[in-house]
Model the fold of this input.
Amino acid sequence: MLKKLAAAASIALAGLFPLSASAQEAETTTPVEITDFSLGPADAKVQITEYASFTCPHCATFHANVWPQLKSEYVDTGKVRFTYREVYFDRYGLWAAMVARCGGEMRYFGIVDMIFEQQQEWAASDDPNVVIGKLRTIAKTAGLDDASLDACLKDGAKAEAMVAHFEANMAADEVEGTPTFIINGEKHSNMSFEDMKAIIDAKLAE
Done:
């Protein structure tokens, strides 16, 4: 399964730039460091890492039905540190991640929410140009401008680093599908808020 995901990432990277051939020429001599974005205190007793793809319907359902309550009851109260790790099944998911990261740490989770909320709209088209256009609209709603988006979407070195980061993390945690949750080092599959609450409460009581 991990080999299939890695192959999907390679395909995504190969088809990264549908709009401009010049974008494929983007290069840098400085290694690009990719970091994960997190919410909640670093020293929280419960640490949750979610592996998710922006084109995964089950991930969108989690972020619609579980994430708001998880955030309000556990992350915002300082009980949980939540880290989001992107998974790239296809080039659309990679593009969405590049757009989300373009907003920086302050805007990242707000853009993530919009990407999942509008998943059925932007990810449904077979036309890459339509997909990019709709992702750009989401980013502009979050306050980004065309110049910033152009720079982000043409950053081939960053895209390669993102794929390498994704592949290394997936292999290390033996993740085989999305969404997958690592809760204090233990791997869990998709679940309801009630099931996640029970696990978190048990960890908090330890």
In short: Strands lie at 37-39, 46-52, 80-86, 180-183, 186-188. Residues 31 and 157 are 8 Å apart (CA to CA).
